[in-house]
Write a structure and sequence with these properties.
The protein is built from 8 helices and 10 strands. The protein is of the alpha+beta class. A hairpin with a 5-residue loop joins strand 3 and strand 4. The longest helix has 16 residues, at about 160-175. The protein is globular and about 60 Å long.
Length: about 220
Amino acid sequence: MIYEFPLQSDPIRQGDIFVGLPRIDMSLKCLPVITEAGDQIEMTWDDIVKAGQPVATIVALRPVIAIVATQDCDALRASDITLCEIRAFQEVERKSKDTKAPKSWVNIITQHARINQKWFYLPPDPTLSFTSKMAVDFLVTLRVLRTDLEEYKSLRRGRLNSLAEAHFRERIGEFFRRYPYDEWYALVPDEMRAYLQDYPDVKPFQWQLSSETTER
C-alpha cells in the first residue's frame, strides 16, 4: 500500500501518521474556570480577556488520528509541529456518504481528489487503525510541542511513502494558496435550485434569486 513503517528512532517527518493524539474541544462562550479558592465558575472568553490574567480551565480532550503537516526541516527544530486530523472519508467528503460501488469510489478517489482541495485520501490499512477509507481534513489542525511529539513517537504508526508524501506536500500547498470564492456564483436560478438540493446551507446571490429560490 502507500504506507511505510519507520523505526521509533527515526526523526519526525511530514507525512508521519500518529494515532491517539489529543484534540481539545471547548467553547469560548462557556469556559469552566477554576478559581484560586478551588471553586468552578463559568466565564466567557471575553470575560477572561478583559480580566487580563491567566486562568486555569477545564477542557475536554479526545484522542484522534493525525498526520504531520509541518515540513521536514521545521519538524527537526521548530518549537511546535502542526498536524491535520484524519477521519473517516465519508465524514470528510459528504458526497461519498452513500457510495458503495467500486466504480463510484474510483470516480471520487481520482476525479474528486483533483477538484476538492480540502482533503487528502488515505486507503484502508488495519496496521494504522484504518479499518475503512480515511481522509486528511486540512480544515482541522492540531498543534503539538515538538519535544512532546518526540517523546511520544510510540504513537506513530506509519508514514506516507515517497510517492504519496510528494502528493500530500503538494496538496497542502494547493489548499493554503487556493483562491477562495463561492463556486456557485455563476449559476442561473434553475441551476442554483439544483445546487441547493445538495448544499442547502449556501446563500444564493441576488441575481440567482427567483420566487422558488427565495422560498427556500
